[in-house]
Amino acid sequence: MSKMATLNKRTNVELDRSVLEHKLDPKKFFLQWEWLLVIILVVILIINGSISDYFRGTQVLDATMNFMDKGFMVLAMVFVILLGEIDISVGSTAALCSVIMAIAYNAGMPMELSMVLCLAVGLGCGYINGILIAKCKELPSMIITLATMTIYRGIAYIILEDQASGGFPEWFQYLSWGYVGPIPFSLLMFIILAVVFGLLLHKSVFGRQVYAMGNNETTSRYSGIKVNRNKIIIFTLMGLMAGACALFLTSRMASTRPNVAQGYELDVIAMVVLGGVSTAGGKGNMLGAILAVFIVGYLRYGLGLINISAQVMMIIIGLLLIGSVLASNFLLNKPKALPKK
Amino acid sequence: MDEYILELNHITKIFPGVKALQDVNFQLKRGEIHALMGENGAGKSTFIKVITGVHQPEEGTMKLDGQPVQFKSTRDSQEAGIVCIYQHSTAYPDLSVTENIFLGHEITKGKMKALQWKEMHAKAQELLDRLGADIDSRASMGTLSVAQQQLVEIAKALSSQARIIIMDEPTAALTKRESEELYEYTEKLREGGASIIFISHRFEDMYRLADRVTVLRDAQYIGTWDVDAISNEDMIIAMVGREIKQLFPKRKIEIGEEILKVEKLGRTGYFKDISFDVKKGEIVALTGLVGAGRSEVAETIFGIAQPSEGTIYVDGKEVKVKSPTDATCAGLGLLPEDRQKQALILDWEISKNIGLGNMDRFRDGPWYNKTKESKTAQELAEKMAVKASSIYDKASSLSGGNQQKVVVAKALTSNLKLIIMDEPTKGVDVGAKAAIYEIMGELAEQGYGILLISSEMPEVLGMADRIIVMKSGRITAEFKSEEANQEKILEAAMLGE
């Protein structure tokens, strides 16, 4: 009833033009999910610092080398999840890219070309995912990428069998171990790409279309958005970033096996969701996901410092995920008070 | 014993902002088949939901066997022996026929309530055989035709020993022959001792089956007659005969050259042989009953679905419309039937929704120019007189009429020649209706061609220059507005071949 009353009262209200000029509402500004993420991140950094005397200055930056590879995938996964879709084949894609790169290099292909091949394989894998998802509307992306996940990993095993391959040139290690000034090269690359992806999502026409599709695909199609084309682009981009992840991962480990990047998809999806991107699609932003990369990354690093076993680490990250999703529901989805006047 | 098995008096049901039923009376005699008729939106469905306990009326009384009753839920009404067979089958397609029939009242044995499948299968088969239906009780529901599924629903009604059976537009999705069979089964139900309420807007159903008929219109009770005692004409007047108020600001507009021409358009399974044209400044109404294929024609012209035959011309040139983008480029716009699901993003602000209509217009290279969008949105929202506190209000906070205005504004961001409006006033109150008609007239005056798809007679008669009537996927009649009247249109929509 009260809703009707406000509607009736509104009938005499003109559209307020003043809103066109100033928009920043300080109350709204500070009631954002990202502030909570910043606080969590700071707390984790302080705890890390207090348990290790080495966690100071450049060491804080160096620690990022351990998780930047996942960060690249997060950037694209934000788009995928904003669509309301999911891609769990990314870990397998990265493994396949890495294995093919190693085989190609060892078969005599120049390293530079092998690296391009690595990215191209990722692109191709993502494109296949995209085509399948756009064309097979009955099948959810979860099922399709579950299938390609096992297929891509399977191909990697067939190519390399259960062996390691490596022997990459010295300079290839620069990708994940090199510096530009005090900043690790991988971190710098991540920051540059994060800005590019952020602009694409929040400032471009394409980004706007992604949000529209995630909110309501039917309306988007009726509004003339090329829904299928955009899906294919996004999954292809996802594959490309899995390829980029493979580059940095392989560089960090200096060799590869068919089982690398196992379970990466879960970490990546966890980072995106922790970053406040809704799996229902259409809600969330790039900044939150980027903060979440550092939260999960530093948390793992800190737990490693005090010799927490990998199994317990998984439990802790799971708890963090559930806690944060609950908190975000509690904080942000509470019913808004009706306008008073 | 009372003459009436079920009696409802002075029923009024109010939904937020709408009177869905107003002072409705209804009496069902023992062993009769009683037709409940009315146009779409007349309140038939709400009324049966009151009987079955889905809705509780604000006012009025209900008596069963002369005793006052109040149903709080469908469970209450089922226990009292009232069963409703809904228009859209509520069956579980992956379960067997037997499981569907006995769902909720399974035959069990012992303390553990072990399910007695053998017995249930046998009993289900017996029920189906009694109806003379050739259906295997072990088949899964999804493999049956719509007509067969309805038979299963009837068998279900039989199995639960229903005394009152309500059938909600059971013939809507059936072919003529299937309908004939349904009539027979319905007669059998009556012979079995049930009293039946048969909801329909087909005259055929009423004449073939019913003893008496009650008509609802605009949520109000119009009257009850013996079927033998009322003529076709009187029925039509009873169903639609409202006064057309000065709701329609029809303007005198010079009609220009042809914008859209559709020739022999067909889409397999939906419509066939559709040919018509729309000229500049002209409002052409495409009318008919729900399910006649009107919306499908609109979707095909707009490129949501592909035609299987025929051609579309815009400004005399043939266009291939493969997607909504193609349609917009050709100058065709669509206001879809379901505003909330097809035209708006409810969680988004008005401004963003308007921008959605033509993102390319707000493009600076690859970047989206929000300032430009806000400016245009403000301008269009003011032009449409959208009632909101600002263009940054969410679309979900608007009333139906204002949402529709936003949808119109959204369409106007593109450079259109023709606007297809699919049920533009559905779910909108009278005041907002008038505003939408005003906008429609204005657009026509500005030279847009308008294809109005509507099942509301007054709207069609009040706004259109020409009226095209469809029935079962074909055009059955075309009238100039001066020569059309409700009876003629309704006749073409219901009886026309």
Give your account of this protein's structure.
The complex is a heterodimer of chains A (341) and B (497). Chain A has 341 residues and is mainly α. Chain A has a single domain (59-332), classed as ABC transporter involved in vitamin B12 uptake, BtuC, CATH 1.10.3470. Chain A contains 16 helices and 4 strands. Chain A has helices at 2-10, 26-30, 33-51, 58-62, 68-82, 90-106, 111-135, 141-160, 174-177, 185-203, 205-215, 217-222, 227-253, 264-274, 286-305, 310-332, and strands at residues 165-166, 179-180, 183-184, 255-256. In chain A, the strands form 2 sheets. Chain A has a two-stranded antiparallel ribbon with strand order 1-4. In chain A, strands 2-3 form a two-stranded antiparallel sheet. In chain A, a hairpin with a 2-residue loop joins β2 and β3. In chain A, α5 packs antiparallel against α15 (286-305), α10 (185-203) packs across α11 (205-215) and α14 packs across α15 (286-305). The two termini of chain A are 15 Å apart. Chain B has 497 residues and is α/β, with parallel strands linked by helices. Chain B folds into 2 domains: 4-240, P-loop containing nucleotide triphosphate hydrolases (Rossmann fold, 3-Layer(aba) Sandwich); 258-494, Rossmann fold (3-Layer(aba) Sandwich). In chain B, a hairpin with a 3-residue loop joins β13 (258-267) and β14 (271-279). The model of chain B has no long low-confidence stretch (mean pLDDT 86). The chains are: A mainly alpha (341), B alpha/beta (497). The interface between A and B is large, with 34 and 45 residues.
Task: Please outline the helices and strands.
The complex is a heterodimer of chains A (341) and B (497).
Chain A: H1 2-10, H2 26-30, H3 33-51, H4 58-62, H5 68-82, H6 90-106, H7 111-135, H8 141-160, E1 165-166, H9 174-177, E2 179-180, E3 183-184, H10 185-203, H11 205-215, H12 217-222, H13 227-253, E4 255-256, H14 264-274, H15 286-305, H16 310-332
Chain B: E1 4-15, E2 18-29, E3 33-37, H1 44-52, E4 59-64, E5 67-69, H2 74-79, E6 82-85, H3 97-102, E7 108-109, E8 114-115, H4 117-130, H5 146-159, E9 164-168, H6 176-191, E10 195-200, H7 203-209, E11 212-217, E12 220-226, H8 232-240, E13 258-267, E14 271-279, E15 283-288, H9 294-301, E16 309-314, E17 317-319, H10 324-330, E18 332-335, H11 339-343, H12 350-356, E19 363-364, E20 367-368, H13 370-383, H14 400-412, E21 418-422, H15 430-445, E22 449-453, H16 457-463, E23 466-471, E24 474-480, H17 486-494
Parallel strand pairs in B: 3-10, 3-11, 6-9, 9-10, 15-22, 15-23, 18-21, 21-22
Antiparallel strand pairs in B: 1-2, 1-4, 4-5, 7-8, 11-12, 13-14, 13-16, 16-17, 19-20, 23-24
Helix pairs in contact in B: 5-6, 12-13, 12-14, 13-14, 14-15
